[in-house]
C-alpha cells in the first residue's frame, strides 16, 4: 500500500509539471497559437555585377596599331579598320560588336596617336574622359620597346608611372568607367615571321623598330642578346599592365592573349611587315571582344 501511494504521488507530480510546461509554452507563443504567422524572410537581392559586359559607349587610346596605321595604304592612318573603333565590316571592330554599326558611329571615339608611348597615355585618357564613355580600351607599349637601341627603351618604372597616371586621370572624373587593357604584342615573333620576306627586311632598314628588327639576318651573340633584352622588356611591360589593372575592380587585362597570339604574315601589313594588316586588326578585335564579354576576368 505504501509503495502504491508513493507511485500515485509521483504520477500526480509529473502531471502537474507537464501542465505547467504547457502553460509556459502557450505564453511564449502568444496565447494558444501553435507558431507565429506571417511571410518568411525575403531573399537577398542579387548584387549588381561590377563588370558590365554590354557597355553603351567606348573610347580608344593608344598608338599606331589602334589607328590602323599602314593597314590600308603606306605611311597612313586608317582608323576605319581599327580593331577598337573601326567601321570596316571585314574587321568587325570591338565597337561594332558591342554597339552595332550605327551605335559605333555615334558612340565610339578614337584618341590613339601614331607613335605614342606610355608617357602620352594620360593626355589621351583626359581627352577620352570628356566623352564619358562606359568603356575605354588601352593598347600601348610597343613604341616604348621599339627604340633606336635597347638603352633608349622606356624603363619599367617609367612605364608603370605612365600607366598608373593614365588610370588615375580617368578615375579622377569617371570612377565607374570600365577599362580593357591589351598586352603588348610579341615583337620577337614579329622579327621571326617577317625576316623571311626580302621586301619586309628592306623596309625595316628604314628605321622600323631598330632595337628588335635592326640587322634582321644577324644571328650572332650581340644581335641575339639585343633581341632578348627587348623581349624581356616587353614581358616586363605586360606584367606592369597586369598588376596595375588588377588593382582596379573595373579594369580587365587580356591575360596576355595579344602577346601570346601566334600571328603569321597574313596578319602583318604588307607595307611595312610590322603593323597589323586588316586581317590582323580583325584578330585583335576578336581577342578584345572575348575579354570584354567574358563572364569572369582572364587571370
Features:
299 residues, alpha/beta, five-stranded parallel sheet, 12 helices, 5 strands, 7% strand, globular, disordered N terminus
Q: Which helices and strands occur, and which strands form pairs?
A:
Layout: H1 2-28, E1 58-62, H2 64-67, H3 94-107, E2 108-110, H4 121-129, E3 135-139, H5 142-145, H6 156-173, E4 178-181, H7 187-194, H8 198-204, H9 210-213, H10 221-246, E5 251-253, H11 257-260, H12 278-293
Parallel strand pairs: 1-2, 1-3, 3-4, 4-5
SSE order: HEHHEHEHHEHHHHEHH
Number of helices: 12
Q: What's the end-to-end separation, in Å?
A: 86 Å
Average residue pLDDT: 88
Total number of strands:
5
Uncertain residue segments: 1-36
What about the largest sheet?
Answer: 5 strands, parallel
Classification by helices and strands:
alpha/beta
Describe the global form.
Answer: globular
- Tell me what portion of residues adopts beta-strand conformation: 5-15%
Q: Cα-atom Rg, whole angstroms?
A: 32 Å
Strand order of the largest sheet: 2-1-3-4-5
Helical amount:
40-55%
Give a concise summary.
With 299 residues, the chain is of the alpha/beta class. 47% of the residues lie in helices and 7% in strands.
